Amino acid sequence: MLNYVLRRLLIAIPTLILISLVIFFLVDLAPGSPASEIPLTVPPDVREKIMESLGVNQPVWVRYGLWMKQFFYVEPLYGIDAMFGTDLAQGAPRLISYSSRVPVFQYIGERLPQTLTVIGTAYVLAVLIAIPIGIYSAYRQYSWFDQIGTFVAMIGFSVPTFFTGLLLIIVFTVNLHWFPSIYNTSLSVTDWASFKTQVQQMTLPVITLALFNAAEISRYTRSSMLENLAQDYVRTARAKGMGERTVVLKHVLRNSLIPVVTVIALGIPTVFGGAIITEQVFKINGIGAALIGAIQVNDLPVVQTIAFLTAILIVLFNLVADILYGLLDPRIRYD
Amino acid sequence: MTDTTRPDDVSAEGVIEAPRSQFRDVWDQFRTHKGAMVGLFVLVSLIAFVLIGPFLWSAEALKVDPDPAKMMLGRNKPPSWDHPLGTDSVSLDILARMMLGGKVSLAVGLVAMLVAVFLGTFIGVLAGYFRRLDGPLMRLTDMFLSMPLLPLLLVLTFLYGPWVKGMLGVVMGSFVLIVVGIGLTSWMTVARIVRGQVLALKEREFVLAARSIGTPARRIILRHILPNVLSPVMVAATLGIANAIITESVLSFLGQGFPPDFPTWGSMLNKAKDNLTYPMQMIWPGLAISLTVLSVNYIGDGLRDALDPRIRGR
Question: A291: nearest CA in chain B?
Fold first, then answer.
């Protein structure tokens, strides 16, 4: 097992290097360079200096190397410094956003909590809803509950999140005035009243995302349960005289959850991608909004860093899913 | 029990049954899937609405009325006989825009899917058939699967959009950019499915027979392998249309698809989202996207069941 994990980690390194190359050059070689954002009235020597201060007048390879060094060496040092109050980085130049002149990681750190609260809650909620529905749907296959459940899952899976989000806004904000449609990032939860406001403003985006994710997970749970319910060991368990409850919730569920768990793990990074849309609909000031904003003003370091961080998450959770699969299913051997 | 005197294809009355084609079998199984039939009906109606509709309904969908007073008076009108779905914020007929926008959205979905399926099949066949290419091509597939696709697609359209539009014209440029972008970011599942199938097929006797009479690789692939990977590819292609339509509408919704005066369902939704006082302007395009994707997904489900020989004929 340890051998396998180590091997996978080693394979991940060239993959990540390739991805970083693709991301860096795709963004860097784009025709709209930061230089085009400088007004034409700026005299050439000043323009030269601006370019120099942005560090864009060096050759591409040097910039790529610098980006990698800052990403994997300098920024972690600053992270350690911030945590333990040390001074390992010693003022080494950090990754700086072109537009706001703030270190990119600090910028991301400011945006991440909003994304994590909303999306994390939505994902946890989705899993909690989806698994019981999937179990019952499969146990009573073709019952009215199953028919409705599969239909709703199909709808939740097909209707794009920006449409569900807008529909919820129309119903609950425009018509009923129950929930706000705009997420207030500066709200800090200090007492009961502010907690209530926070829950209120989270409700709509969380429902939007949870519906979409729950649809997918419940479909997986259902089909996995169905597959296992038809197995011989279920008949054996019943023949031994075990109660239905034990058979379904202990024997079948345990085996059915193996693929579901990996699907859940694989879904976590893609949730970040999907969150871009939800953040845009509800105007949440999170990572997705930061990415869109950065793309619009040609803030290349922010775009590259967020895209690469997402790629790292995807690779990481792929690995986690594979390891979980091996841990949960003793039939799988990685030798 | 065993009646050896009678040939197998003669039924009890001695009438020879017409041989059944595989297509017929698939269609018979497909018809038993209720959701898929409803989905097919909805999709065909939507296509008819988009293609035949403009011949029956010719209200202005693109050009804003040059007379500002007339334009202002005709804005955001509720449904009436002149405008069955009302007018939008620049007093254009929503029904006519829905038809025009649908044509673009469906065309993007179809063409992007074709690009993705072509790329995926090509890479999948190469990886499955030629052992030397297998490793590198599958690494490439894995790498694409690990990329943050939506952010990269956004980067592609945002940063390269003006350049491509400058070369090919605004509408054509957006179309090519979106179609190629979606195709480049969604071929991986097809490639994996095809590779798996090709790996299995390659070991079968009929391929061995073809090879033993000296058939060149190109001919084996085109004549013997491709027809046999068609069915899983068809399912993936159907689901690919749904994926492509959603991605296009996401790009348009984020303001990065087609230019604002050129309607697609996604861009109509984007325009209407800032005008929520008139929710119907947003509901029509949203409903159209959702219905299309829903019906395509159901058709995909039905097709998967129909093409699966283990289920068919039960």
Answer: B151
